[in-house]
Amino acid sequence: MWLKKGKMGTESRRVLEVVWEMGARTGSDYLRKLDSGQREVWIAGEKITRNVSRHPQFRAIAQSIAHLYDMQHDPELANQMTYVSPSSGERVGLSFLEPKSREDLEKRHKMMKTWADYSGGMLGRTPDYLNSDLMALASASKFFGRKDPRFGENVRKYYEFVRENDLLLTHTLIHPQANRSVGPSKQSDPFLAARIEDKNDEGVVIRGARMLATLPLADEIMVFPSTVIRGTSEDLPYSFGFGIPTQTKGLKFICRESFAEESRFDHPLASRFDEQDAVVIFDDVLVPWERMFFLEDVDIANTLQEVTGGIVHMAHQAMVKNVAKTEFILGVISTIGDTIGINEFQHVQEKIAKVIILLESLRAMVRASEADAELNQWGVMTPDFKPLNAGRNLFPRLYPGLRAVIQQLSASGLMALPIEKDMWSELRGDIDKYYQAKNTSSEERIRLFRLAWDIAGSSFGSRQELYERFFFGDPVRMAGNLFNWYDKQPYKDRVKKLLHYEEEDGHKE
Length: 509
Ligand SMILES: Cc1cc2nc3c(=O)[nH]c(=O)nc-3n(C[C@H](O)[C@H](O)[C@H](O)COP(=O)(O)OP(=O)(O)OC[C@H]3O[C@@H](n4cnc5c(N)ncnc54)[C@H](O)[C@@H]3O)c2cc1C
Prior knowledge:
Elements: H1 10-17, H2 27-35, E1 41-43, E2 46-48, H3 59-71, H4 78-81, E3 82-84, E4 91-93, H5 102-118, H6 128-139, H7 141-144, H8 149-165, E5 169-172, E6 195-199, E7 203-214, E8 220-223, E9 240-245, E10 251-255, H9 270-273, E11 277-288, E12 292-295, H10 298-308, H11 310-339, H12 346-371, E13 374-375, E14 381-382, H13 385-410, H14 420-423, H15 428-434, H16 442-456, H17 459-470, H18 475-485, H19 489-499, H20 501-504
Parallel strand pairs: 1-10, 5-8
Antiparallel strand pairs: 1-2, 3-4, 6-7, 7-11, 8-9, 9-12, 10-11, 13-14
Helix pairs in contact: 2-3, 5-11, 6-8, 6-11, 11-12, 11-13, 11-16, 12-13, 13-16, 13-17, 13-18, 16-17
The structure holds flavin-adenine dinucleotide.
């Protein structure tokens, strides 16, 4: 139900009031906005409502995200990280660019790689991931406006609002994992999964939960269904898409245990890049009408990422990140090989060669997707999804193997690992003598192996593996989608032709 045209209540006005246009943000802009106003984030039994970026569990990740935004203002990077907004003339983040040519795609690639390299690919949710999705959704605003053009306008305006204010997005797609053998309406409580509770003049009231939102320190949250919505009347209340501030009243983020570590020496990655994951509770959250992208529309709910090209642009970003991550891990294992003198062993070379093969395959997939890009029905230059779809299915299967190579090459080196406190204790003399390496000091060796542990062993490293396995969806169902979507007919025809060659060939023996 869409209420009377032009009607806008007080809550809606409140949302619009916070629109201010500023273009690409600095890190300080991001932190200032993050700490202004009230939100509800829970971690380890503690409720944080203000100054979240200064909380010990979030300080490091907030600083890392701030650094990404600062890169947009680095004189050496600014041109490749930003472009001139078509609406304001301000420079805005390049991941918002609607690509119209292959050159545009390459610009997007370069920008995304620069952000991915900052964390060695360990930050899954640099802002470009969801910016890419929103860009594609907005380009297809007519798709959302099929039944009521105002939904299409909402998506378009939301994109411009996020772009001009350079806001950071998180998103949540999945119903709580209570009983997967039945849909959301058949759970013990129909409001377990977030659903429509009411519709009124102001907007739509949502009650229930969603999992899982990575990077709860975002400015805005987009909410879409990812599992197939059946067209039954029971399923309709779960069919909606919208974007609202993470500071919206009634919105609660329950974070998992923190893997953020204090010491950079001990945990060079976990001390900087624990982006957090949270269950999101909608405690009668009012979503203003102008933030609603679709409502009770099963067709849009089930097809929006495919039809808009959102999935392709997200896959493009994720694959660029995967290249950065594989390069980084190749750097780590090659340095381990040098450091302890094992690079001449044949099986070590074979293991490192496998990583090189994966890296070059991923790179080739990204390049192929760009080379074969075409304008889609919305006029957006869209990478070829075939190699990206193969790549997003391949990486979750092979990433655990990258961690295994680190373990296999490092062996007990991952356990003979003093921590920072040991380094500054009276043990230092022993450490310098007994932890030395073939070609480097004990301290350099320990730093390297601590980094290796953060990838291959620590809680942070385990979460990275889980992330790669699942963040793009259940690998089993993704493979099923690939199987069903991929056009196999030409190859089946070729087989048929060969089997019946005597009917086809002019030449008969
Ligand atoms: C670290 C991390 C970060 C994430 N970040 C985000 C995020 O930011 N936003 C977001 O929306 N989501 C996020 N996700 C969630 C991600 O989208 C899901 O993990 C993924 O879609 C799988 O869903 P699930 O976890 O509910 O697994 P389930 O669907 O519960 O699957 C559990 C097991 O049951 C099997 N199974 C369940 N149902 C079926 C079925 N119908 N057919 C076949 N097999 C089935 C699966 O194959 C799997 O083995 C994140 C996940 C992780 C691990």
